[in-house]
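A.,

Following up on our hallway conversation. Structure tokens first:
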């Protein structure tokens, strides 16, 4: 979708968006969904430089 994690963070903070709001506003997380665990981390931590998640962490975040 060509939207950076920093942009997601700024929109979430500025507009009070949760995950569903981010999806609606940016389209991120609406296609394959592989970015959803990373978006959740951005929303939780405010970090925009994220590590590659190990499989267990990825699955845990994806299933929340």
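Then the amino acids I'd put at each of the 64 positions:
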């Amino acid at each position: 979708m060509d939207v950076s994690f920093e942009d997601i963070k700024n929109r979430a903070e500025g507009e009070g968006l949760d995950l569903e709001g981010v999806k609606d506003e940016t389209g991120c997380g609406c296609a394959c969904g592989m970015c959803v665990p990373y978006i959740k981390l951005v929303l939780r931590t405010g970090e925009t430089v994220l590590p590659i998640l190990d499989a267990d962490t990825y699955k845990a975040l994806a299933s929340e």
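The mean pLDDT is 96. Curious whether your intuition agrees with the design.

B.
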